[in-house]
Amino acid sequence: MRYDAYIFDVDGVLIDHSNSFIPSIVLAVKTILNDDTFNQEHVFEIKSFKNFNNDWDTAIAGYCWRKFHSSENLSDYLEKVNELGSGIIGVRNSSNELTSELEEHLIRLVKESYGGTTACKKLYGFYPTTILKKGFWNNETPMVSYNKIKPFLQKLAIFTGRNKEEMELGFEILKWRIDDKMLAVSDLPELNKPNPKKLIPLIENLNCKNPLFVGDTEDDSQLVLNYVKNTGKPSSKMIITIVRNRNGEMLINPIKHMAFLTNLIIFFSIIL
């Protein structure tokens, strides 16, 4: 199978966010809990469950676990969340003490951690008031060089959980960009991954028959499976996910071998 188009997630695929969004989530939860019982390993474990591609939801889940369910180990808590609706819906159903005000406060703290004093206003429209430090976004680096990606730019699209402003920052880090019609960002929560509604026009705009989707979370896999369910198209030909261990460490980075992948069908599980 020769792939004729490529659709990428951004964080953990094109951009190394291990020192940006991940510690932003951790710092936000630590700040509101006022302790150090939540760490990066917990973030990656939460993201290994479906419907936790969104960093705000991940932070809320981590907080609720430590605040209201600390007697349970994280895996057991997440299994319960999954049974109660999965993602943020399951978290809300698991914790009656969780209020919308508390959710908004946590989300604001994640934004303050990521944007910091230098970019929070540009990204989110407000200046930080609690976490007054240089934003973690400054730590982001490309995971693949422009020279590696250049041969594929004419047949490349992006589907990301970043909002428009965060993606603009991402293009500055990557030092390349694509046409807006080849880009799907996070604007309406109900259209975020794993909802495939935005994937359909991307594939149409690419005018392709055999696209390859590259992601790194359970929601990326669910996105493609939902696309298949909605369109009736075969799935085994268009999914590849980056393999990580439970510490979030990358074990296989397929993007560095794009030319090889154009002639190979691979389906990896997310967590070993």
What does this structure look like?
By secondary structure, the chain is of the alpha/beta class. It has two domains: 5-17 and 140-261, HAD superfamily/HAD-like (Rossmann fold), CATH 3.40.50; 21-137, no CATH class. Helix content is 44%, strand content 10%. The protein has helices at residues 21-33, 40-47, 55-68, 74-83, 87-94, 100-124, 146-149, 164-174, 199-206, 218-231, 258-261; strands at residues 5-8, 15-16, 141-142, 156-159, 183-184, 211-215, 239-241, 243-244, 250-252. It has a five-stranded parallel beta sheet, with helices on one face. Strand 8 (243-244) and strand 9 form a beta hairpin. Helix 1 (21-33) packs across helix 6 (100-124) and helix 3 (55-68) packs antiparallel against helix 6. The longest helix has 25 residues, at 100-124. It is globular.
Per-chain topology:
Elements: E1 5-8, E2 15-16, H1 21-33, H2 40-47, H3 55-68, H4 74-83, H5 87-94, H6 100-124, E3 141-142, H7 146-149, E4 156-159, H8 164-174, E5 183-184, H9 199-206, E6 211-215, H10 218-231, E7 239-241, E8 243-244, E9 250-252, H11 258-261
Parallel strand pairs: 1-4, 1-6, 4-5, 6-7
Antiparallel strand pairs: 2-3, 8-9
